[in-house]
């Protein structure tokens, strides 16, 4: 579920050196957009930060929308990778609690700044850019299905009741996580993230066999 | 808790006509920023949409930051008012369920667009503008404490157990609501909002006496 996706067509036609340059541009854009938002980041900012020329930038991304889309795909992968190996194996209450602790830790490490890299992009782009919105839906779906896979294992092993719905439970967990991250960013305090995830885990536990 | 706050000092020193002009500017700014984001809204856009001159706009708001802050206060009041009278009396499971249905309805009425007016501002401003962040914290706190007051009544009447913590439960509800609204906006589907609020209500119910 969280394995690295196949290269996009754009990437596949590049040489190794071209892919490295493209990756440097996307990384620079992702960092700037995480810090300042998409609207607050110009392609000129990205060009400067990545240390590439105008024609190089244009060669890889002929408009800002294409760059934004590459950033969404990149940030989705980063977010999922940062939760590994736990996210790939959320198949016990112990694993769910360790995952909660990891998510809280990650926020504390960055002083509760920035919120969720995918959630922030969603808040800014969902209504403004339909192509971006679809990529964000896909990103959230990858995250949700990684959670769901672990819960489905728990049900299959009889730890959750047969009527527990892993899809619904995973959606509840992702909802708590997104709301928790937004309130944690606003309050600069992990209490909302902790409260939301604790409640989500308690809700999952209420479906234990 | 959700009563209209006292006028700000800025408002108090204005004539009735001045207050109406100021309100028209804030409403225009709030609408534009809800639709396009703060970064995507220029003071020129606001000036045009409100039908005021440059010097009038400058008279009330001498920079965009002041206007943004007035928009946060305005949107907080709008969001709380839109949930009345239910939000002022969330003191039974029936009321909590009616509130959930109202929130889902409101999203359906706007085709799941826009997300939460406060949450969207928080996602865009929390890291960028410390003064705005504090106003957003206050806005969320007003919302949270309206939820908490109802839950505290339920505990005082013995419907929730004495060890139920209305502060924590209200924070869980607000977290589920914010995550649900963000995912609902992204997916254009109320399923995440419904799942999050249902789980939050079930979690509150698990504290029933």
UniProtKB/TrEMBL annotation, chains A, B:
Q: Does the keyword Hydrolase apply?
A: no
Q: Name one Pfam family in it.
A: TetR_N
Q: What SUPFAM superfamilies does the record tag this protein with?
A: Homeodomain-like, Tetracyclin repressor-like, C-terminal domain
User: Can you give the residue ranges of the HTH tetR-type domain?
Assistant: 19-79
Leader peptide range in chain numbering: none
List the keywords (alphabetical).
DNA-binding, Transcription, Transcription regulation
Q: Which domain of life is it from?
A: Bacteria
Question: Which ranges does the entry annotate as DNA-binding region?
Answer: 42-61
Q: Which PANTHER family has this protein been placed in?
A: HTH-TYPE TRANSCRIPTIONAL REGULATOR LMRA, TRANSCRIPTIONAL REGULATORY PROTEIN
Protein name, UniProt field: AcrR family transcriptional regulator
């Amino acid at each position: 579920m969280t394995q690295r996706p196949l290269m996009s067509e754009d990437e596949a036609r590049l040489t190794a050196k071209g892919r490295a340059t493209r990756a440097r541009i996307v990384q620079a854009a992702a960092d700037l957009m995480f810090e300042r938002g998409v609207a607050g980041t110009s392609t000129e900012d990205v060009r400067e930060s990545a240390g590439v020329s105008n024609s190089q930038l244009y060669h890889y991304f002929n408009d800002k929308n294409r760059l934004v889309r590459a950033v969404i795909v990149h940030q989705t992968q980063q977010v999922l990778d940062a939760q590994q190996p736990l996210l790939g194996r959320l198949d016990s209450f112990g694993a769910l609690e360790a995952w909660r602790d990891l998510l809280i830790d990650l926020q504390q490490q960055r002083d509760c700044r920035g919120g969720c890299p995918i959630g922030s992009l969603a808040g800014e782009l969902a209504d403004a850019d339909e192509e971006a919105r679809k990529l964000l839906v896909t990103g959230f779906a990858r995250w949700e299905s990684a959670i769901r896979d672990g819960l489905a294992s728990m049900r299959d092993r009889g730890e959750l009741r047969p009527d527990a719905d892993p899809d619904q439970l995973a959606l509840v967990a992702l909802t708590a996580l997104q709301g928790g991250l937004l309130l944690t960013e606003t309050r600069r305090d992990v209490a909302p993230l902790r409260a939301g995830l604790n409640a989500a885990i308690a809700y999952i536990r209420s479906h234990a066999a």
